[in-house]
Design goal:
The chain has 93 residues and is an all-alpha fold. It has helices at residues 17-29, 33-48, 55-63, 78-92. The protein has a domain at 35-92. The protein contains four helices and no strands.
Length: 93
């Protein structure tokens, strides 16, 4: 006899490489405790949220952070993208 499992299949978590790249870049720009706390919370959000950004969006964020339309991203990601833009502005001074 073949036994059938009654357990539900557990879905594999998707890799969110684009968000992790953004998080890594933010970590490199972090200079104080507030920045490090934002990065820490961003990592938690990445692990618990299902949202992802496209490679083209990531490239736009990295190449022209001042020209990024933050409203085109999911609402949960907007504060972190805004903080990345702030860190880029601060480091360019």
């Amino acid at each position: 006899m073949v036994e059938k499992s009654t357990r539900a299949k557990v879905a594999k978590p998707r890799k969110k490489t684009n968000l992790y790249k953004l998080c890594t870049q933010m970590n490199k720009l972090a200079v104080d405790a507030v920045d490090k706390e934002v990065v820490k919370r961003f990592k938690i959000l990445i692990d618990t949220n299902t949202e992802e950004i496209t490679k083209a969006s990531l490239d736009q964020i990295f190449s022209n952070p001042l020209d990024v339309n933050v409203n085109s991203f999911h609402e949960s990601l907007q504060p972190y993208i805004k903080h990345y833009i702030f860190m880029c502005k601060r480091n360019s001074r």
